[in-house]
Write a structure and sequence with these properties.
Length: 332
């Protein structure tokens, strides 16, 4: 199946702002500056995962007004709300905005070392007694606090909600669903692609750029798709004039950190049974690629601009697979 790129918002100069991909160090999530790498033993993590699997499935409406908006879901904090939380599959821990922490007078927690897309920094945290999304509940949460000024959100939902679960982003119906993992197979209009877990995130393993193997991560928290230098080298070998076609872009992380990149278009990219053409990617060798140990591997993070080309994207963290549903009008 082939999907062509739609017209996207221009990403010239400094007018564009990328979404706030929030990332944490592999294996230890958010930790105190002086704490050892592993903050908790394995057993509580296993028990937490089993508890998540016992919770009922839930479906909530999302609040995106156009295809370039982040996916946001209504969240209750300690019985108050709802508040707008961005769903970020590139974040392995949920967090709250400075404004929400102050409004709810949430009790302060430890100082945590937080890795955003541009690098690590010590951040304050707060303690949350109860956080609800639809019929699903989590208790006793220690959440980092980030500025998030100007993003119109109150917090971020990371993949700590999705251990062994299945997240369904319904872009066409503007819904979000969390259910138990289940076996799926490709069918007419639906393509299931194998993936692997890396630092908690799902990385598509069956992907290539004009026959050259690449890694592709699903990152619903980034407004644009991001690529690393190793991926850019492939494009420049294919097209020696590619560098002259690059357009400079200014971006902003959710923590208010500015960084720059250059936009190029991928001629053709394959994700399992999908072929995508003319895909715009912003290239920036940000520290997160080294954090994931992917700085030497051609890698891109599939942002919301690409994900919304599909009617539905389903991420199964239990079976390590991703399903893309394609609208009738977009099929070859």
């Amino acid at each position: 199946m082939q999907v062509g790129s739609q017209t996207r918002r221009a990403m010239m100069g400094w007018s564009a702002a990328a979404g706030g991909t929030l990332l944490t160090a592999p294996g230890w999530a958010f930790g105190q500056e002086a704490a050892p790498p592993i903050l908790s033993p394995v057993l509580p993590e296993v028990l937490a995962e089993l508890a998540d699997e016992d919770q009922p499935p839930t479906t909530v409406d999302t609040n995106s007004s156009n295809v370039f908006d982040h996916v946001t879901a209504p969240v209750m904090i300690n019985g108050r709300g709802p508040f707008r939380f961005m769903v970020d599959t590139g974040a392995n821990t949920s967090c709250v905005s400075q404004g929400l922490a102050e409004t709810l007078a949430l009790p302060r927690g430890r100082a945590l070392r937080v890795h955003t897309v541009v690098g690590p920094r010590s951040r304050a945290s707060v303690n949350i007694d109860r956080l609800d999304i639809g019929s699903r509940t989590r208790r006793n949460i220690e959440a980092p606090v980030l500025p998030m000024a100007g993003f119109g959100i109150d917090g971020v939902l990371g993949i700590d909600w999705l251990k062994g679960q299945r997240l369904v982003l319904g872009f066409a119906g503007k819904t979000l669903e969390i259910t138990k993992s289940r076996r799926e197979a490709s069918a007419e209009g639906k393509v299931v692609v194998p993936a692997r877990r890396k630092s908690g995130q799902l990385t598509i393993v069956d992907a290539d750029l004009s026959g050259r193997k690449i890694s592709a991560m699903i990152d619903s928290g980034s407004q644009f798709s991001l690529g690393n230098t190793a991926l850019r080298r492939i494009i420049e070998r294919m097209d020696p004039k590619a560098a002259s076609k690059a357009q400079k872009v200014g971006l902003l992380s959710i923590a208010g950190e500015a960084f720059t990149g250059e936009q190029l278009n991928l001629p053709f990219m394959r994700l399992g049974g999908l072929t995508l053409g003319n895909v715009p990617v912003v290239f920036s060798d940000v520290p997160v690629f080294r954090l994931w140990d992917l700085h030497d591997t051609p890698t891109m993070m599939l942002g919301i601009d690409l994900l919304t080309q599909f009617t539905t994207v389903s991420l199964d963290f239990g079976r390590s697979s991703v399903r893309f549903d394609i609208a009738d009008s977009a099929r070859a």
